[in-house]
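User: Hi! I'm a student and our assignment asks us to look at how structure tokens line up with a sequence. Could you show me two examples?

Assistant: Happy to help. In each example below, the sequence comes first and the structure tokens follow. Example one:
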Amino acid sequence: MTSRLLAESSFRLAVERGMGGFVIDEVTTATGYSRRTFANHFSCKEEAVAAVVVIDALQVLKGMRVESGETAIDALERAIRSQLNQGNVERLTQLQDLARDHPALRPYLLATYGQVMRPLLSALGMTTGGVGADLDTLLLVNACYGIFSAITLGEIALPARGDDALPTLAHNMDPLINVMFARLRSGFANTR
């Protein structure tokens, strides 16, 4: 709960003012926590801002199970689509903007994907009868989360935010997800 409040406050301040427009003391004042408490959870404000990725994803993935008869790739597609709901795509867009303007944020964003993949790998690993994921599942999950890395680094631009774009922002991700999973299912056999 403390980490979430500190991360949410840091993210809000970053969106409002930019990464250079606030200091940790403003986060601690807004949340009622001490600087020491902040330091117990995050090494810097960049790490706190990036933590919203983990918070959003873990909330969606909480209790993730592979359904009976579902393949690992089907379960993974369901998990990715559920993570890219309207609010999360909006946040990813904001984080992409922040990372473009403040490159020091990028490594912290990239580090969050490992934290997000762990519970998913655990759930998908159960489909192989083990407690961990097999090589194919590891490759599949890492390929999918590679798309988030490309988004974070600005290699794939998210839909522009605007009053008329907000209602369909998540739907604009559908074509990207469709292509991504079609290629994963075909083994990239038809791509050049």
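Example two works the same way, sequence first and then tokens:
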Amino acid sequence: MRTYNAFPEPIGGFTVGRIQMDLEYTASDHSTRELTAFVYYPSDSSEGKTTSTYMFPEVYELLNEQPLVTEDIFSIDIKTRCYDDLALSGKEKRYPVLFYVCGGGGSPEWGTVLCTDLASMGYVVVSIGHPNSTMYKREDGRLFNVSKDFSDVLIAFSEDPEMLELAGKMEMRPDDETAIAMCRDVLTLPVLAKLTEYSELQAEDVRYVADYLYQLDSGEQNSIFKDRLLLHIGMGIAGHSYGGLTTAMVCRDDERFACGIGLDSGAFGLLGSDLKKPFLLLYNEPNYNMNAIIGANNSMETYYFSVDRVGHLDYCDIVFTSVNEKLRGERDAMEMRNLVTDYTKNFFDHYILQKAASVESLTYDGVDLIKKTSNK
């Protein structure tokens, strides 16, 4: 298996800056949510600085405390292509905004390659550390690991007899009726209730940070983003795996978001939901069985792209940092990076910036548009 000592150079023309912000608020369940957020953004110069640290070593060590992790998964000994605390580029008056949501049990840095690529092409991209369901180090130095309760919920789901029985019946490339029926059966499992609650809290985190971005843009909070964020056209959001559920919930519940992307994600908590936003799903078979209900209910365009020869974790940075060959698919890491970045950028360029870019025009071997639906 090929190893990498650096992430690929960003695709776009901007140098990429990164800042970290600690935030805190009271959620709807009355819990105090202590967040951190990494913001990737366009800059004009690296100012002679060294590249940002990828993941803090203390955060990486938290993996050993997670019961689901029984062997080495990835290395953090890799060079990023972003720089801490740069000036915001002066090439444009304002920049559009995206959010990225990592998978459950992961870290907000796991999307560094995609976030850096998108920032290099002129987007401001926010990746949040979510209490209980992700691991991170705040600027104040405190460490947050995945909670035992969240780990227990994930284990319960992975071992649930009803879920295992349904998984054994999932077909590759099922017809719509079969996939929707299977998806309904999955989404009504009692074991999903608690997972859905955590995802809803993550969606609240995203909405709170979105509120904060409005304060940064207005100057209510001092930052480099005063009068520099292009918010009125709508924001975009993408999420990998469990983070894709949060992405869909944000699209459904917050009119400020124009569209969303789920990277090999499901539809937990979305049984009766009309997202009312364009949505793209990039996934491995037989995952259509887990998310078919999204397109069946959505009144806006829903794209389903099936990708062959990939592993579940190939959609995040582990495509470059993996030390465990069993976790990787068969595609070259650079090809997979280009694939995910192209589909993500083209989708957001079209639905946020109103460019002519189209995901349907992209051609990658083994990537098929299975379905495009709209129930308008």
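Here is something you could point out in your write-up. Residues 15-373 form a domain with the Rossmann fold fold (CATH 3.40.50.1820).
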